[in-house]
Amino acid sequence: MSKRYDVYAQNCPTRMILDRVGDKWTLLILNILVERPMRFNQLKRDVEGISQKVLSQTLKNLVRDGFVERTVFPTIPVTVEYASTVMGKTLAKPIAELTYWAEQNMDNVLLSQQKFDASANSAVEPL
Asked: I need a surface site. Which of 4, 15, 29, 37 has the fewest CB within 10 A?
């Protein structure tokens, strides 16, 4: 029997997963790994702006949660490759749609932010 979860319940463990997959680095890494397996340094090059520490920690969490698999090849030096698991691939479509939406709507978001900031700056409260 499958256990029932309620994401709106304060102590529901699904919130941890939502927090994980809602992270920008997680989304970008999963979006790349669904296409093909990659080594650490290639991921670091492809995900511009991510630090080595953040990439390492994010990959560790994704492996722990079952979204990514880590394969070590017995070469000299050792080669490590990361790939999306079957479960990780189930997120491919929602992530692709979200990243596409972000790219398509960024101009509108920036315009809204500018309007908000302009109105917030003009509404100075008297002392």
From this structure: 4
Q: How many domains does the chain have?
A: 1
Kindly compute the dihedral angle of the four CA atoms of residues 15, 21, 25, 31, in this order, to the nearest 10 degrees. 180
Contact between 69 and 76 (Cβ < 8 Å): no
Residue 89 to residue 96: CA distance in whole angstroms = 11
Convert the pLDDT of each residue in 24-61 to its tens digit. 999 999 999 999 999 999 999 999 999 999 999 999 99
What is the CATH classification number for the domain harbouring 21? 1.10.10.10
Q: What predicted TM-score, i.e. pTM, was given to this entire model?
A: 0.83
Helix (H) / strand (E) containing 96: helix 92-122
